[in-house]
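User: I'm putting together a small comparison set for a docking exercise, and I want a reference complex before I start. The sequence is below, and the ligand is iron/sulfur cluster. Could you produce the 3D structure with the ligand included, as structure tokens?
Assistant: Of course. I'll restate your input first, then give the structure tokens for the complex.
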Amino acid sequence: MSAPVLELKNVAKTYRVKQGMFGKPKPLNAVNDVSLSLGRGEVLGLVGESGCGKSTLAKILLGLEEPTSGQVLVDGEAIGGQDRLALARRIQPIFQDPYSSLNPRKTIADIVSLPLRVHGVGDAKSRAKSVRETLELVGLPARVLNTYPSQMSGGQRQRVAIARALIMHPEIVICDEPTSALDVSVQSQILNLLNELRAEFGLTYLFISHDLAVVEHLATRVAVMYLGRIVEEADVGDLFDAPRHPYTRALLNSVLTPDPSLGVPDTQLGSAYPNPISPPSGCHFHPRCPFAETLCKTKAPRPVPRAGGHVECHLHDPDSTMYRPDFTV
Ligand code: SF4
């Protein structure tokens, strides 16, 4: 991997959450000791079920949430001390729902030029030129400049959102489920566009999705998140060819789930996603794991290196009594 452009070092985010009117606030570890590293031009797919902590991680990277502990570095520089505007020049988001992320009362020209105006870049004439060029880049004609989001299709709106994210020439783009709200036929057009833009501008993406099929299309590496932890990370080919963690296997099986509108995968694990306020003991995945043994209920697995990353499971830990060197899921 090239020198990391984005690094997360032991990042954690804990909220205090009250249950019921008279309940005492309890800690909720939304992100739990996450370390990740992205080289320039890489696409890291971050997958997991709804509530696993991936959107909290996105907010931390965008400076919308402070981590409770740990560090986020861009080009080796901690973002903690940077102001929001400086950070926004380097990291831009594309959100899931282009219907709600675009102001319905503003024209497309106003929406796409907003970052330039906020950052005081150029004069009106140069900003207008920049907006036209960026719209062209994302495949939208200049005639949409004076239209409103309501006059556009879902795919066109997501192209507007991409233009708005790219107009400041960011280094990193956080794509938070950018195709989930779109028709299947439009999804692949947007994924292809994101791929082309990445290749042309050397962009680095953190691509958040519940859908491993989408991630396989775009990502160079994949991190699988469960209850705030990265339970498996690997190069995309390795992860799909030889998943090591039982949860990764469940997610891969869920790709075959027929209803694409479910929003979160049917992981076929028999029991519901646990409440993050009172996570299961030991390995948090044990109540849903078909391979769990007594040790899994009492001891959390440690990260063990695997090709291109790591896996957290006793079955892959040579120091564990459960170690099975020939085990594949
Ligand atoms: Fe399953 Fe145990 Fe591995 Fe956790 S540590 S994933 S419960 S086998």
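Residues 256-261 have pLDDT under 50 and may be disordered. Residues 184-201 form the longest helix (18 residues).
User: Thanks, that's exactly what I needed.
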